[in-house]
Amino acid sequence: MTARVNLATLTPPIALGPLDGRYRKVVAPLTNHLSEAALNRARLHVEVEWLIHLTDHGVLPGAPRLSAADTAYLRDVVATFGAEAVAELAEIERETLHDVKAVEYYLKRRLDSAPATLGADTALPQVHEIVHIFCTSEDINNLAYALTVKDAVEGVWLPAATAMTDDVAALAREHADAAMLARTHGQPATPTTLGKELAVLAHRLRRQLRRIGAAEYLGKINGATGTYGAHTVSVPGADWEAVARGFVEHLGLTWNPLTTQIEPHDWQAELYADVARFNRVLHNLATDVWTYISLGYFAQRLSAQGSTGSSTMPHKVNPIRFENAEANLEISCALLDTLAATLVTSRLQRDLTDSSTQRNIGVAFGHALLAIDNVRRGLAGLDVDGAALARDLDANWEVLGEAVQQAMRAASIGGATGMEDPYERLKDLTRGRRVDGPGMREFIAGLGLPDDVERRLLSLEPGSYTGIAAQLVRHLDG
């Protein structure tokens, strides 16, 4: 075989996966929270704040108190964490072969260089041994992950998901009165409105958004097996539970008082299950809209979908946004389900399976964010074809059979005679048959219904048989 260029050696490196390649622009905001670099910055943030917390509260007898300038310098180490810091940290980790230890050494280097910025009077070079004191790696990691996931959900995923859901709700309101043939089991059924069906999906999505918006993000900082063992031996006079709780809450997290070496990750499992459920409702929306497009109820604007529908059939405008969303939602759910199922188990006091698993959190949210973007763009390119809706309704007068049957039942209860076997009589007329308007009206006129009931049914058409569907859309504003 002819020798080929080794693509793995090219510079800049070629992305292995689509999120860092083809779809990079869409998911890039998550990089600031759920990338390896973002995780290391969060670890550095936790280490810095722990150092400040211990010195500010006088927890360690004999430890120097940091000046305002010292504290500002430390926090600036986190704020300015960029490309050079990422490279330096990677260099340190090549020596330590331990990611958290590399962060510890990186921070100590910054302490040593503090006098060049703050002058010789700074206390920072003297606080080396306070960095990472009483901490196992998981004290840093669990807090860093909680912070990064919280920031990613609240700062990126939740706003995108909310905006997309608002788009669905807006479409529902706009088309609240657009009568549409329903299709239960794929068969013509009692009419509804397009707006009401979209409102159902928006309502479901919003319920999941409320659950996700109320998520708890737990954290702990209690040592190698969660006992504060080294803490109480080294500094027996401190109230270590109060110190730990105050620190975790200072970070904006919820303190977990009972853990092994790791925070058990139950909050993560709960969150990922809720996000996966949101994904599945959104998947339902994508498949429903795809079907409405195939039925002709929605027309796609070519400019919004892309210039090429098919490589060989030039007439086609494919619903690619919704198909792309389906695929990415399925991948996201598979990852989220795995995370939720596996993170809740850790052998005895600690094993490292969660370390590898959690590195895929960003991938799971990346596919979910990509799907949301595709649905938004897909919805923005749709126009409702009112004529198609009307044609389908007019071709299915048999769907009025339910209304006639129930009106006969009600009339019978009210004392009318001759209303026997309403279901069977409508079944004989409509099952497996198409009934047109004249045929349905002839049948109604021959039933002997009370005059007011007959008038009401004779005025009914498939397009007006939508009950209070349009009113139900108002629940989106409740």
UniProtKB/TrEMBL annotation:
PANTHER family: ADENYLOSUCCINATE LYASE. The keyword Transcription regulation does not apply. It holds the Pfam family ASL_C. Its EC number is 4.3.2.2. Catalyzes two reactions in de novo purine nucleotide biosynthesis. Catalyzes the breakdown of 5-aminoimidazole- (N-succinylocarboxamide) ribotide (SAICAR or 2-[5-amino-1-(5-phospho-beta-D-ribosyl)imidazole-4-carboxamido]succinate) to 5-aminoimidazole-4-carboxamide ribotide (AICAR or 5-amino-1-(5-phospho-beta-D-ribosyl)imidazole-4-carboxamide) and fumarate, and of adenylosuccinate (ADS or N(6)-(1,2-dicarboxyethyl)-AMP) to adenosine monophosphate (AMP) and fumarate. GO terms for biological process: IMP biosynthetic process. Residues 346-466 form the Adenylosuccinate lyase PurB C-terminal domain. Keywords: Lyase, Purine biosynthesis. PROSITE patterns: FUMARATE_LYASES (PS00163). One of its GO terms (molecular function) is N6-(1,2-dicarboxyethyl)AMP AMP-lyase (fumarate-forming) activity. Pathway: Purine metabolism; AMP biosynthesis via de novo pathway; AMP from IMP: step 2/2; Purine metabolism; IMP biosynthesis via de novo pathway; 5-amino-1-(5-phospho-D-ribosyl)imidazole-4-carboxamide from 5-amino-1-(5-phospho-D-ribosyl)imidazole-4-carboxylate: step 2/2. This is Adenylosuccinate lyase. Residues 21-325 form the Fumarate lyase N-terminal domain. It comes from the Bacteria. It is an enzyme of class 4 (lyase).
